[in-house]
Amino acid sequence: MRSASSAASSSRAPTWTIMWKALHDRRSWQGELVNQRRDATLLRTSLTVSPIFDGRGQMTNFVGIYRDITERKQMERQLVQAQKMRSVGTLAGGVAHEFNNLLAGIHGYATLALREPHLAPSLREFLDYIVQLTDRAANLTWQLLAFARKPSLMRNPTNLTKLLESTRDFVQRTLNIEVALDVESAPEEEKWMALADANQVQQVLVNLALNARDAMPKPQPAPVIFRLRHRVFVGEMPAFPQNIPPGADLAIEIEDRGSGMPAEVLSQTLDPFFTTKEVGQGTGLGLPVAFGIMNGHQGVLTLASEPGKGTIIGLYLPRLMQYVPDVTASNATVLEPEAAPRRRILVVDDEQAVQDVIRRFLEIAGHTVVCAKNGQEAAHILKDQHFDLVVLDWMIPKEEGRANFYLLRQTRPGLPILLCTGLVQAEQASALMHENRVDLLRKPFRMNELWYAVNNALQQDV
C-alpha cells in the first residue's frame, strides 16, 4: 500500500496520468507496465490499482497488485509470429508448387537436350549452366520455405560437404554473411555421407549463421566458420552437453569470434524463449528448434563458449555406414538407366510440361507411358487398361491429393503409386507415405532420381 501523496510525483508519464485520474474518479485501474529489474533486464507486469477512502470520502491510500506476465507476453508474441508464419507458409507453399513445376520443366528439357549426340560444345556448356541454375533455384525455394514452414523429416543419403558449400553460398549471397569453410580430408569412398534431411539441417545452419553474425562486433565482423570433421570435442572451451551418442561420427561446427557467453547464460540457451537479444530482435527459439531437429536425426547439438573467445556449436550426425555413390548435377544428365523390366506407367499431372518431361524420361528407360491431367481421368483410364505403376502429382487444382490417391487405389487395388510434390511440406502426403508404404519424389527432380524412385516403387509390396 502506498500513500496518495507519494505517488503524485511519479504521475508524469501518460500511463500514470490515466491511472491517477481513474483513482480520483473513485475507480479502479488495470493495465500493463514495463519495469526494470535490479539486473537491468525488463519486466512486463500487469497492475491492478484500487483507491482507499476515509470516513469523509477522501482518498487517502491505494492498493496495487502486480503480476509478472513476462513469460506470458513472450508466449503470446511467439503465437502471433507462428500464426503469421503459418499464413505465409500456406501462401508460399502454393506459389512454390507452381514455381517448382516450372523448374521441373526447364530442368527436364535442358537434360533431354543434353542427350542429343551432336551438340556444339558451346551449346552443351549453356545447357549445363541451365541445369545448374535450376538446381540452385530449386534449393533457394526450399530454403526460403523452410523459414515459413517446418518441413516433415525426410532422411536421405546426404553429402555434407556439398550441403555446407551450398549453405555457404546461400548465406553469403542472400544474407550477406561471410563464411569460411574448413573441411577435414576424408577417404574418397566416404565422402562425408550422412543419413539426414538436407533441408532441415540447412535450416539449422542458416539460423546458426545468423546468430553467429549477430554475436560479433560491428561494422566488420569476422567470418563465420563452418567446419566439417570426424568426431571431435568442440575446441578447448567448456561444452554442454558432452554425451555424444555412439554412431554420431560426423561433426559440423559453426564458430564465431564474438563476445562469447558465461556459464550461467550457456546453461539457459536451450530453454525456449531465452534470448540475449533485445526485444523484437529474436524469439529465443533458434537453438531449442535446432536441438529438436538434431534429436530427430539421432544426433546431438553441443555448445561451447567462453567470454571474450566466442562460441562453437557442434552438430553431430550419424555417418551413413553403407557407401552411396553421389550423383552431381553435371553427370546426372548422362547416366543411362539400369537394365530393368519394361513396365506400363500412368503419369497423372495437370502441368503439361511436367507430364511431357516425365513421359520422355521414362520412355528413355524403356517404359510405356500414358498421361492423365487429373484423378478422374486417371481412374477412367485405369478401368480399361493395365498398368504397373502410377506417378501421381499430389497437388492438382480443384482436387485433393489424398482423395485422388484412394480413388486410384479403389479403382485398382494393390497398384503401386509414386507421389510427386513441389511443396516443402505436405503433412497429409507424409502421413499417407507411412500408412501405405508409398514413396515421395520432390520436384524438380533429375532424370536418374526419377528412374531410381520408379524402380524402387515397382519393387515394393503394396
Gross morphology is extended
**Order of strands side by side in the largest beta sheet?**
6-8-10-12-11-9
* Helix content bin: 40-55%
Structural class: alpha/beta
The termini sit apart by: 74 Å
CATH classification class of the largest domain:
Alpha Beta
Question: TL;DR of this structure?
Answer:
With 462 residues, this protein is α/β, with parallel strands linked by helices. The protein is built from 14 helices and 17 strands.
Task: Give the SSE layout.
Layout: E1 2-3, H1 4-8, H2 14-24, E2 29-36, E3 42-53, E4 59-68, H3 70-114, H4 121-148, E5 156-159, H5 160-174, E6 179-183, E7 193-196, H6 198-215, E8 224-230, E9 239-240, E10 250-256, H7 263-266, H8 286-296, E11 300-306, E12 310-317, H9 329-332, E13 344-348, H10 352-364, E14 368-372, H11 375-384, E15 389-393, H12 401-411, E16 417-421, H13 427-436, E17 439-442, H14 447-459
Parallel strand pairs: 6-8, 13-14, 13-15, 15-16, 16-17
Antiparallel strand pairs: 1-4, 2-3, 3-4, 5-7, 8-10, 9-11, 10-12, 11-12
Helix pairs in contact: 3-4, 3-10, 4-6, 5-6, 6-8, 11-12
